[in-house]
Amino acid sequence: MDPSLWSAYYYAKKDYRATLLAKASQYQKFITNQFDLARTPSEFWRAVNTARGHKMLHNPIPPDSCYMEKIETAHLYFYKRLMHIPSCTPNYALRLELNLSHNSLEICKAAYNWVIKILDMKQESLPKICLLRLIALNNVAPDKPNWIQYLKRILQSINEVNILDNLSSHHLKLNKERIIHIYRDSLRNSDLERYSHSTACQIILYKTPTDGLPNYLRSCPQYLVVPKIQLRLANNFNCNISIDKSLINLNPMQMYRYCHNLAAETVEHFLLDCPLFHIPRLTHLQPIEDLSPRMNLVLILDDQSVASLKALHLSLRESAKLIDDKTCDFCICWNLMLFERLTLLLSSLRLLHSFRRCLMVTVSSRLEQTSGSLLVIRWTCMRLVWPTCSLVMIV
To answer: Nearest 5°: phi and psi at 231?
Structure first.
């Protein structure tokens, strides 16, 4: 290629990157302003949904479900970062807890509306000719994206693929709301089925297809909402609990660190069984003695009143303080032990130095009687820094 063309391509690519960076910076300012203006929980969640919807407009229609899963994971990661939830939290549990719709539902709406818009065009228009040709294709190679085939798979999953047999915009408009409603219910029922049989979630709460946004997300401030969501979405691999400026990390894959009971670091043991947190538990949570710890845990996490969230927050705050005190005591004991070992080591080194001086005096006296021979002297330093030292001298 001509060098001038390469130069033009380089500068065009540089300008395009600068444009993308400017748009990304502008979008970041938009989200920041939305969150700064949110003074109440309802305004906060409205800002979150607005930001997500604004970002959703830039998504293309994926040709396959694997791309759809990647886009879904990327979008839900935004909420996980917002709530300090581990990335290994199941996506279906997060969608049910925050009443989020699938990205595939939004893309299905966009694809359906696009088909209606094209069918309203004239018969000789190029988009309509291309659409009819794509619909007529029965077999498509995997390496050739075809968004109509993706729409067909969506309609086939809800047994409505025959709706494309009648390519009339009026017919599609009449059935639009019904198709979207059926697909939305199908996705939500799929999430409910996976959640009810989940082996990744620690706590399975009762949920129905008609559940909306939980009440505590509408009426409680964020500092009360975050630990509640973290506990309700706790998984069997990692769990974070954010209390003020403290972070409690629980790893259910290992034994509990804050007591001598041989139990895993689960939310149930942390809230209801650990003897270290006995006082905060009785003071604030007040579990029912006649019920099992599992039932008490479900009742505590399923209670969405403001008083219950405040009691849970106070209990977690006192528990975090006890953990900090225990960690501080452990650090003090560890430092004292290190100081004792260091003192012992220094005293041993002093003994070694005095022994070395005495040995050199002995060697110098022996050298007067020995000449032309190899003198090798070895000694052991009581398993210290140098376990064996050698002195080789040729006279």
So the answer is: -75, -40
